């Protein structure tokens, strides 16, 4: 391995930049690149390369990179046919890194991929780094190095700030920067990585974690080259106090893979990615535009004091207060329950009948009093249940002056205030006032609520990071010897039992007489199941006979088993429970062991009410997974039903997570479906189990 010529920090902040194919014509790629470098005030040495010109944009031009002297970074936006020769010349000239904007390489098929491999080999042999190809380059707002042809650089000014971004799509990155700039956000460095032939997303993520100018990191990810690097980098970002937000493409494809087990069909790689983000405290967003606004909020607003707090909504129109409050539940947010001190403050300004949230400032005794508004918002920002204040402003007199109150209140209160300018053009004066004050605003209530969800996820991540690492529960025995391939129910249950997970008592029988003896040993009523490794869903084939009260019923059920090759029958105690959960474990290549919990039984794929996390788990993680299920109210006791034994479910899930962690890649997948959950204090029991083991038994 040849030593690399430049660090990433120096690639992003080069002292000298050559533009290959530079031109005076801004209609050409090379013309735009040099135009943007000059326009945005690149402070280093700028070297146009063009064999047909003596000077470009008033700078001396060189016929080839070899004639230009030492250059840190060369930007290439040349036709693909010339690319290899140009990269070779750069390598020979001692260039530190090439930013290759040229596309139609690996992105265009095998021929392009071969060329990309050639270019990479040239670079590697020289110790020259590559960004791209097929990228839009780098914006470095902190050091005013715009190494890009992106049209977002048409903006008169690109504001420097704390958001660092890495994107696998250059065009999307440009759009996100333009959205950020509209809202007054500032950026440190934005890097488009394109095909990632050499430098990849995780390299730049690592750079941003260490970059002093970057306070918040936003990522657009299509696929990670090396997912194993991602989790540890998220941990480092958290240790550095830098929130990481990401959008990952491919959400809708989740679960598309044909699956042998429930767990495989419910826990695709998007789900595994989401679980990893949650476990490491990264904020996964669905909408890239919301991601950049949330990154800005984390950069310029105070953080939420803690997760799970309520919101105050304040507006001067009844319509916007009510419609905003109506949108909260679907966004997973809630209005706060105000404390007595807050109510007392509100009573000073309005009749008792209006002392509630959302607050309509039209109800102030003296009209829409500025003093009253400020006093109430101050009280909100000190209330123990109010994490943030949302201010959806509709058209009203003096919008700009009213908007200008909030930056100061927010700073004083030390909690986020999300100001929404819901009007279009007439709201621009208010927007300008907030840009002047370096304070974020939103154009739509839905954006502000999306941002709040992201802030909530950040606060949850902060909370989780404060917990001690997962601890191995006591009483885990030696796992039984495991054959490779599909286990029978009895084998899978023995594995679960070795980890202390309660399973139904069962006896394997080879004849109806043996089955009757087994039933007598277990005690009626019993369950009879036909055993076959080849069968995935036993009940679909009529292989499960429940609640058999006596020997006669058992004989009849035995006789009614379908005519398929069976390895025997399993006689089981008939268990009872109040709810059915599915517990699953799976090795996700690139991500490691994962566990899942959800609404179980035969309808799991239909309900798709599941939560996934990397293994092993802490009890707190397992409890949080259960609370996020749609089924949670049932577990918690709803409408006079008893609360169920959540502790037993937590215990089983934690133990399964250690099983998954211990077996590692050998555990291809495992389901306990269902785990019957009884009333609080009465425990849980797995009545079915299935597992697929890979590789050799140790
Ligand atoms: P499969 O999932 O392969 O179709 P199961 O063993 O899960 O077969 O049985 C189907 C359903 O029968 C379970 O979802 C559960 O509701 C019920 N069941 C199975 N075994 C028992 C048992 N031992 N006690 C009580 N109910 C059971
Ligand atoms: Mg089952």
UniProtKB/TrEMBL annotation:
Pfam families the UniProt entry points to: ATP-grasp_5, CoA_binding_2, Succ_CoA_lig
Signal peptide as annotated in the record: none
Keywords: ATP-binding, Ligase, Nucleotide-binding, Tricarboxylic acid cycle
Keyword NADP: no
Superkingdom field: Bacteria
Residue span(s) of domain ATP-grasp: 493-529
MF terms (GO), sorted A to Z: ligase activity
Protein's name in the database: Acetate--CoA ligase family protein
Taxonomic source organism: Siccirubricoccus soli
Highest classification ranks of the organism: Bacteria, Pseudomonadati, Pseudomonadota, Alphaproteobacteria, Acetobacterales
């Amino acid at each position: 391995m040849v030593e690399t010529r430049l660090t990433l920090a120096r690639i992003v902040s080069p002292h000298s930049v050559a533009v290959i194919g530079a031109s005076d014509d801004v209609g050409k790629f090379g013309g735009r690149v040099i135009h943007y470098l000059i326009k945005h005030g690149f402070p280093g040495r700028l070297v146009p390369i063009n064999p047909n010109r003596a000077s470009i944009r008033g700078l001396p031009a060189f016929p080839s990179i070899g004639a230009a002297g030492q250059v840190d970074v060369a930007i290439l936006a040349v036709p693909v046919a010339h690319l290899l020769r140009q990269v070779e010349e750069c390598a020979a000239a001692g260039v530190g890194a090439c930013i290759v904007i040229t596309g139609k390489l690996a992105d265009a098929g095998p021929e392009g991929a071969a060329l990309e491999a050639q270019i990479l080999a040239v670079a590697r042999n020289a110790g020259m780094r590559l960004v791209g190809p097929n990228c839009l380059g780098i914006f470095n707002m902190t050091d005013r190095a715009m190494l890009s042809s992106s049209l977002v650089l048409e903006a008169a000014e690109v504001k420097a700030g704390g958001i660092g971004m890495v994107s696998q799509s250059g065009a999307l990155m440009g759009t996100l920067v333009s959205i950020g700039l509209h809202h007054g956000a500032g950026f440190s460095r934005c890097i488009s990585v394109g095909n990632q032939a050499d430098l990849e997303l995780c390299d730049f993520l690592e750079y941003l974690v260490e970059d002093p100018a970057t306070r918040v990191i936003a990522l657009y990810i299509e696929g990670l080259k090396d997912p194993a690097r991602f989790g540890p980098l998220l941990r480092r970002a958290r240790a550095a106090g830098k929130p990481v937000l990401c959008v990952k493409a491919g959400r809708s494809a989740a679960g598309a893979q044909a699956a042998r087990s429930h767990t495989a069909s419910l826990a695709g790689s998007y789900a595994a990615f989401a679980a990893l983000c949650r476990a490491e405290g990264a904020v996964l967003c669905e909408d890239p535009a919301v991601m950049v606004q949330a990154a800005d909020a984390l950069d310029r607003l105070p953080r939420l004091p803690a997760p799970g707090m309520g919101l105050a909504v304040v507006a001067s129109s009844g319509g916007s207060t009510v419609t905003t409050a109506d949108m909260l539940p679907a966004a997973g947010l809630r209005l706060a329950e105000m404390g007595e001190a807050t109510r007392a403050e509100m009573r000073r300004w309005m009749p008792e009948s209006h002392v509630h949230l959302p607050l309509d400032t039209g109800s102030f005794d003296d009209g829409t009093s500025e003093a009253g508004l400020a006093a109430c918002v101050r009280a909100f920002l000190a209330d123990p249940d109010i994490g943030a204040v949302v201010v959806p402003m509709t058209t009203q007199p003096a919008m700009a002056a009213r908007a200008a109150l909030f930056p100061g209140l927010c700073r004083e209160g030390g909690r986020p205030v999300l100001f929404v300018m819901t009007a279009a053009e007439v709201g621009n004066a208010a927007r300008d006032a907030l840009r002047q004050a370096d304070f974020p605003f939103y154009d739509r209530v839905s954006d502000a609520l999306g941002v709040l969800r992201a802030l909530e996820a950040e606060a949850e991540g902060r909370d989780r990071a404060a917990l001690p690492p997962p601890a191995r529960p006591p009483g885990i025995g030696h796992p039984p010897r495991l054959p490779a391939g599909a286990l029978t129910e009895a084998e899978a249950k023995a594995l679960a039992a070795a980890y202390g997970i309660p399973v139904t008592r069962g006896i394997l029988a080879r004849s109806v007489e043996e089955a009757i003896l087994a039933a007598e040993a277990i005690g009626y009523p019993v369950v009879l199941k036909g055993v076959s490794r080849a069968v995935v869903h036993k009940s679909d084939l009529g292989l499960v006979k429940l609640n058999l009260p006596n020997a006669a019923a058992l004989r009849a059920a035995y006789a009614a088993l379908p005519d398929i090759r069976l390895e025997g029958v399993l006689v089981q105690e008939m268990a009872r429970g109040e709810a059915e959960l599915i517990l699953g474990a799976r090795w996700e290549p690139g991500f490691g062991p994962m566990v899942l919990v959800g609404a179980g039984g035969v309808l799991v794929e239909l309900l798709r009410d599941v939560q996934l996390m990397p293994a092993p788990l802490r009890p707190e993680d397992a409890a949080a997974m259960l609370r996020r299920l749609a089924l949670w109210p049932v577990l918690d006791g709803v409408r006079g039903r008893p609360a169920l034994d959540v502790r037993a479910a937590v215990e089983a899930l934690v133990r399964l997570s250690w099983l998954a962690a211990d077996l590692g890649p050998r555990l291809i997948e495992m389901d306990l479906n269902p785990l019957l959950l009884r009333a609080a204090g009465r425990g849980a029991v797995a009545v079915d189990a299935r597992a697929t083991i890979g590789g050799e038994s140790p």
